Amino acid sequence: MKILVVDDEKDMKTLFEQRFRKEIREQKTEFAFVISGEDALSYLHQHDHEAVLILSDINMPGMTGLQLLQRIKQEHNNPPPVVMMITAYGDEANYLKAMELGADDFLTKPLDFSLLKDKLKIPANGKNFSS
Amino acid sequence: MTITKKSVAILLLTILYGSGSAQNRLTDSMQQMLSIIKDDTSRVLTTIDMALQYRNTNPDSCIYYCQKGLSLAKKIGFKRGEAYAITTIGLAMREKGDLPKSLELEMQALQIAEPNNYVIEAAFCLRRIGLVYMDLKDYSTCLHYLYLALHKQEAVQYKRGIAIEYMNLAMTYEYMSRLDSALYFIQKSERWKDLIEDLYPEVNRVFGNIYSKKGNRPLALAYYQKGIERGLKLNDFRTISFICADAARMFKQLNQLDSSISFARKGVMYGQMASYKKGILFSSAMLSELYDSINPKEALRYYKIAAAAKDSLFGAGNIQTIQMLISKEEARQKEIEQEKTVYQNRLKQYGLLAGLGVFSVIAIILYRNNKQKQNANKVLENTLTELKATQNQLIQSEKMASLGELTAGVAHEIQNPLNFVNNFAEVNAELLDELKHEATKGNFDEVRSIANDLKDNSQKIVFHGKRADSIVKGMLQHSKTSTAKKEMTDINALADEFLRLSYHGLRAKDKTFNATIETNFNEHIGKIQVIPQDLGRVLLNLFNNAFYSVNEKKKALNGAFEPKVCVTTNKKERKVEIVVSDNGYGIPQKILDKIYQPFFTTKPSGEGTGLGLSLSYDIITKGHGGELKLEKREGEYAIFKIILPAST
Q1: What class does CATH assign to A2-118?
Q2: B415 contacts in A (CB within 8 Å)?
Q3: Cβ of B454: how many Cβ atoms within 10 Å?
Q4: Is B567 helix (H, G, I), strand (E, B) or coil?
Q5: Which residues contact A87 (CB under 8 A, 6 or more apart)?
Q6: Does B350 map to a domain?
Q7: Are B355 and B473 part of one and the same domain?
Q8: For position B322, which CATH number holds?
């Protein structure tokens, strides 16, 4: 399973790599990291159908995570990738906006990795990724 | 009384007026004289003359000797001596600050002197009544009595008295800010300076005050210094104390606080040397104010000195007593006046009636015009009040909104670093288990690798912990009302200091960083009242932003760009302007309304808190009553203007 992480916090890369070191070592999960919405779109463009799960921050310089979500849902619909929002701004307005734009899940920082791992086993759209 | 006695008395009066250190010598010689003089009337006059020496330094001793003279005068039925004694006690009472008693005594003495035609004594009483009114700041009444005194002395051509009255008149006109009249009289009195040599320091003081008010400070200072010089020769520490207080006041108005403090301290010192309570009070009260913002300890010290001097000067209920006394005296005067005027009034009435008719017609026309204007003004005033109220409400709601934004912002912004702190800490716990496991298996390569990860992670924990700390500190700074006080600050020096701080700070972080710095300081802006720490923080923010912007542009253009940051200071009317400009990227139109919002930043995460401009805006507008303005062209430049009121 390939996961694209979109976050302007560069330490997210190290964190994910360490939190998922077992999964990476066992080659169950593969990660790609970008630091902006623009980068995420060009990655998806170059690696179509590769990333099946996108974890995106909302508050980023340039394109926001919500704008990214909207673009992904509009442009990549065959099949649509699963997009989970991960944000420090866990207020209701952000949550509703994300859901309205078609987000598959909504997680808040500080990120609970065991919760995230559970969700990866049974993602929001019912498909099981860990198989 | 013989002519000789009279001239002896006047001669003594002339010698003794205001002299200080010669006091003991003279007292001794007078004690001797007293023992020689067998004539009782001469004894009365000499006793009072002796008392006069103590008028400034020890009013109580003065009163003691006067009362001795008074009882002797009463015993031998020496009316003139009685008047002389009473008016001198009145003088001492004025020095003590007991104005009601002084006024009462002077009037009592006048009632003896007038009917008996003791012209000089009557003139003394009138002068001293005038001076009490001067102390009460009732200058028109003061002038009235001083002119009466002058005319009496002119009638007998008592030149010394005339010269003194000129000086007193000049002093009063100076207090009234009628400077041309003041100058006229003080020049007249200076022409007779040989007659009032002992009062010459005082003459210079009045000159100094007039020129100070006229705005000719160098000339004023020259007169003050001449006055002090003369005072030192005469040991007249009382007048020196007075002059120092006046000079201190002048420098205070000019905001030259060092000179002001130096003079005020001298004022206290000479006041203490002369045991002159009023002088001590004036100068120490001023010092307490001057030190208020710079040195609270000294401020308190001088406040206590002032309070002690004040306690010994003014008794409670002074003002009421004097008011009663004045109304009593006014009633008496009115009775006399009424009798005189009833007859004259009848004559005038007819003339007045005719005039009144004409005036009423004009008055009605003027009244109508005025009424219309007043109505219009009232409408304008109401509108203005409403506008001000609305403005205050807007500011208040803006404050609340910004506070709300701030707390929500902080709560969320903290989650980002916290995310790393929590998760890396948890990862480290897991890694330690793995480490133990690998160690027991003897996989030392793996152990080393895990140990390295552990070290990196703990560094990240520290880094993000500190980041959270700085966000909270930034918020505290934002919400806290500054406790620092405003002080006179050299704006150019402050701007220069923080420009260097900013530049070297960035250089320390990034060795490749470079920019041209241009400063255009207007040397005439002088010092103004600001909170230096706060204004410094604003300047640091603006400089950091400017350097950041030009540096980004340089990186983007691969060095084909000359980065430049410029600071300019200007004075415009009653305002001081600090302009920080750069030739960086400017600010895009679409984020213009956000730049002052807390936590808004265009910098990559971790590099800016987004509190800089928001804080700066608060400091300039709320903290200093100034303005923070922005001019920009996207991609070309940004100019921030700080406009501060220059008044204190």
Answers
A1: alpha beta
A2: 88, 90, 108-110
A3: 17
A4: strand
A5: A57, A58, A59, A65, A94, A106, A107, A108, A109
A6: yes
A7: yes
A8: 1.25.40
Q: How far apart are the first and last CA of chain A?
A: 9
**Residue range(s) defining the domain that contains residue B376:** 342-480
Strands A2-6 and A53-56: parallel
pLDDT band at B426 (very low <50, low <70, confident <90, very high): very high
Sign of the CA dihedral B611, B613, B617, B623?
A: positive
Gap from A20 CA to chain B (nearest CA, Å): 10
Same domain for B476 and B347:
yes
- Residue B605 Rama label (left phi>0; alpha psi -120 to 50; beta): beta
Q: Are residues B618 and B504 in the same domain?
A: yes
ipTM of the complex: 0.87
Residue B147, number of CB atoms within 10 A of its CB? 14
The token pair at A60 is: 């980023």
H helix and E strand count, chain B = 22, 7
Instruction: Let me know the angle formed at the C-alpha of B19 by B17 and B24, rounded to the nearest 5 degrees.
Output: 120
Helix (H) / strand (E) element for B528: namely: strand B527-530
Best A6, A9, A19, A63 member to test B by mutation, with max B CBs in 10 Å, is: A9
How far apart (Å, rounded) are the C-alpha atoms in residues B474 and B464? Answer: 15
For residue B316, the model assigns a pLDDT of 39
Cβ count near B293 (within 10 Å): 14
Identify the helix (H) or strand (E) that includes residue B367: helix B318-441
Who's near B196: CB < 8 A, 6+ residues apart?
A: B160, B163, B164, B167, B189, B203
Do B495 and B410 lie in one domain? The reply is no
Q: Is residue B357 part of a domain?
A: yes
Instruction: Identify whether the C-beta of residue B240 lies closer than 8 Å to the C-beta of residue B269.
Output: no
Q: What is the DSSP string of B95-108?
A: HHT-HHHHHHHHHH
Residue keyed to tokens 């990240």? B460
Residues in chain A: 131
> pLDDT, tens digit, for every residue of B159-177?
999 999 999 999 999 999 9
Same domain, B369 and B271: no
Residue B483, pLDDT score: 61
pTM exceeds 0.90 = no
Gap between the Cα atoms of B520 and B356, Å rounded:
66
d(CA A52, CA A83): 9
Chain B residue nearest residue A10, CA to CA: B605
Quick one: tokens of B279?
Answer: 């002088």
Q: Which of A14, A61, A110 sits opposite B418 (nearest CB)?
A: A110
What does the block give as tokens for B623? 């903290």
The answer as to whether B626 is a domain residue is: yes
B353 and B305 share one domain: no
CA-based nearest distance B470→chain A, Å: 17
pLDDT tens digits for range B56-69: 777 888 899 999 99
User: Does residue B147 lie within any of the structural domains?
Assistant: no
* Chain A / chain B CB contacts < 8 angstroms: 56
